[in-house]
Amino acid sequence: MSDLLEGFLGTSVEGKKSRVPAKLDYFQSATGLFLGLFMWGHMFFVSTILISKDFMYTITKMFEGSFLFKEPQSWIVSAMVFFVFVIFIVHAMLGMRKLPINFRQYQAYKTHAGMMKHDDTTMWLTQAFTGFAMFFLGSAHLLMMMVQADTIGPYGSSMRMYGDVMWPFYLLLLLAVEFHGGIGLYRLCVKWGWFEGPDAKVSRKKLKQVKWLITGFFLALGLLTLAAYVKIGYEYSNGLVDKYKPTAQIEVTYDVKVRA
Ligand code: HEM
What we know:
- The protein is an all-alpha fold.
- Helix content is 75%, strand content 0%.
- The chain has one domain: Fumarate reductase/succinate dehydrogenase, transmembrane subunit (3 helical TM bundles of succinate and fumarate reductases).
- Helix 2 packs across helix 8, helix 2 crosses helix 9 and helix 6 crosses helix 8.
- The radius of gyration is 22 Å and the shape is elongated.
- The site of protoporphyrin IX containing FE has 22 residues, from helix 2, helix 4, helix 6, helix 7 and helix 8.
């Protein structure tokens, strides 16, 4: 029996309780932690547009190796996206083991969740639902970023949001990511006993408060960022502003003109 199948069934050929599910659980936690922390960084990167178009441009070019190469190398970003994509798919596959796979199981689960009125159980349902949605939305976003890495920037990203009407897609993805990531990181802390004080109940309560604070913060940041891209995209689409050019480039053109 393959390791993966063993993981799904929880027993080995000999019928003994397998250690594979524990290993898969460990990988699910590790990939989840990576993706959760990656998303914090990602949200800060995307939100640089709130500071200025120039700042977002500079950071984008930094990811394209501006400190090493003269010309932007967008393949570096494509390669990074590919790496994240692999981790994302592994995490999703491991997560799917735990989805209630048939309707009866789901009904039993719902009755259980309703009866217990237990926060953690309801959180699990939210996480399963947002995880399922993200499998499609996240994959589409990652594919798009991988093949169009060269379009990332104040102009390209804003036009994608407004001109290509991708903002409703991003809004759904943002909600799914923030709820899924917040709950996921909270559950990781509880599962592995991170930040646990002498009284586990008190620690859990505090962790839940921190979880809500973090989710609220990134949701607010994400919504503001989304609004900024949409506004800029609207301005470009309606000819209210010129297509973005980095300030450094404008200065160079000016220098050349003066010298001529
Ligand atoms: C290395 C991988 C990634 C890159 C390079 C990347 C890049 C970007 C860029 C440039 C944007 C701005 C909009 C655009 O240009 O289309 C964006 C927005 C967004 N991305 Fe990613 N992304 C990556 C991975 C992910 C992952 C794994 C997720 C979650 C599954 C995600 C979720 C989002 C969300 C929710 C937004 C909207 C942000 C907001 O409203 O503030 N991204 N991403």
